[in-house]
Structure formats: structure tokens, C-alpha cells
Amino acid sequence: MLEALTSLIALQALDTAADAARRRINDMPAAERALDAAMVAAKVVVDEARAKVEANAAARRTLEKDVATIDGRMAKFEEHKAAVKTNQEFQALNHEIEVAQTTKSTLEDQILALMDEADSFNSALKDAEGVLAGRRRAADAERAAMNVDRKALDAELAQLASQRTAATPAVPAAILAKHDQLLKSRKGLAVAAMVAGHCTACHVRLRPHVEQQVRRNDSILPCDSCQRILYYVTPPGPPANDAPADPAPPATI
Ligand SMILES: [Zn+2]
User: I need a surface site. Which of 73, 192, 193, 238 has the fewest CB within 10 A?
Assistant: First the structure.
């Protein structure tokens, strides 16, 4: 094979590997944003659950104050009982006490309902905090793994770049310029194999005489359609133990 062609194939392998490494690095900010978004969503659920717990506790405190006020009022009613002179006053006072007791009982029912509700709100808050903590742990682990990957990919890119620098002198400057131009215009793929007379990059069938020339691997030839530099790989030979040429006779009954 022409030395420049061998070098171009090696260059393409290095460039493809570098593209893959760069793509993985470029995908990382989006992955980090997704981790942040998952954390924010879990924190919103925690904040909402905590707001319910706090609102419930505040409502209970208000009702408990109301109950204390009623207790104070009822104590005063009891004190007044001693000073009551007429039956009418006594009945009026008893009525006040009944009203106060009914109100207190209603408030106490509401407090009990709020306490029941508080149990489910507290349990929802605990669950939400558990989810948030789990996501934080997962995000920390994923970020740490991403940092390790990023360092490894940076090192790989540096190594690929130095391998590329070492490989380029074997390619004549004009061909290298053409190759680099193709690399930019053809989405990072400048060199393609020809298989069964087709360019494997654009899948166009090559003209027979181009196919014949490419098969020789002794010159730099562009694809008829995409202009990528073509090379030919000899297909693997037949397996060592070939099946017999004649099919087996049909089994007789
Ligand atoms: Zn092509």
C-alpha cells in the first residue's frame, strides 16, 4: 500500500477516536445540567412538603390558642356562677358555658384532624428528604465519575494529538491539506474504505475503472461522489474447512 495512504488511514483512526473523545467531553455539561435539574426537582418536592408541615403546625397553634381563650372564658363563667342571683341569670350563664364547650369541642376535633394530617405530612417530608439525599449521593458519585472520565479523555486527546503529529510527516503536504479540508467538510471522515465497489461513507457505487484503481491501493483517489479518499481492504479469505462443493444427497426413507 502507498505509504501516504497507510498514514492517512492511521490519521483517520486517530481523528475518529479524538472526535469520539471530544463528543463525550461535550456531552458532560448537559449531563451535569440534568443532575442539577433532578436535584432542583427533588428539592422543590421537599420544600412543598415542609411548607405543608409548617402550615399544619401553625394552624394547630392558632386553634390551641383559641382553645386556651375559651378555657379562660369558661373559668370566668364558673367564677360568675357564685355571684348569680336569679334563675334566669343562671340559665343564661349555663347557655354561655354550653356554647363555649361546643365551640371548644369543635376546635379540639379540628386539632385532632390536623394531628392526623401532620402524621402523613411528616411522613411525606421524610420520604421527600430521602429522595433528595439519594439523588445528592447519586449526583456526587456521577460527578466524581465524570471528573475521572474527563481527565482520562483529556489525556487520551493529548496522546492522540501527539500521535497525529507523529503520523503527519509521512503524508505529502498537498495531500494532507486536501485531507484536512475534507475532514472539516465531511463531518470528521476524510478517508473511507471501499467495499464491494462501494464507498462505505456515502454508499455510492464507484465507476469500474475507479474501483480497479482503488483496489491497487497505490495512489490517493477520491470517491466519485463524496470526494473522500478511498482505500481497499482485501476481504478475509474463505474459511479453512470449506463445505463440500456438492450438496449432500437427500435422505432416503
Ligand atoms: Zn463516497
Answer: 238
Distance 230 CA to ligand 1 centre (A): 8
Residue identified by cell 348569680 is 84
Cβ-Cβ contacts under 8 Å for 163 (sequence gap 6 or more): 14
pTM given for the model? 0.70
All residue ranges of the chain with pLDDT < 50 are 243-245, 248, 252-253
Rounded to the nearest angstrom, the distance between the alpha carbon of 2 and the centre of ligand 1 is: 20
| Structural domain spans, the chain | 12-169, 171-232
Q: State the distance from the centre of ligand 1 to the C-alpha of 179, rounded, in angstroms.
A: 14
Centre of ligand 1 to C-alpha 168, Å, is 23
Instruction: For residues 123 and 118, give the distance between their C-alpha atoms in angstroms, rounded to a whole number.
Output: 8
Concatenating the DSSP letter of every residue in 145-195 gives HHHHHHHHHHHHHHHHHHHHHHHGGGS-HHHHHHHHHHHHHTTT--EEEEE
Which element (helix H / strand E) includes 31? helix 3-83
Cell output for 101? 364547650
Q: What is the pLDDT of residues 18-48, one digit of tens each?
A: 999 999 999 999 999 999 999 999 999 999 9
Residue 170 Cα, ligand 1 centroid: separation in angstroms?
Answer: 24
CA of 222 to the centre of ligand 1 (A): 8
For the domain bounded by 12-169, which CATH number is listed? Answer: 1.10.287.1490
Cα 224 to ligand 1 centroid, rounded to whole Å: 6
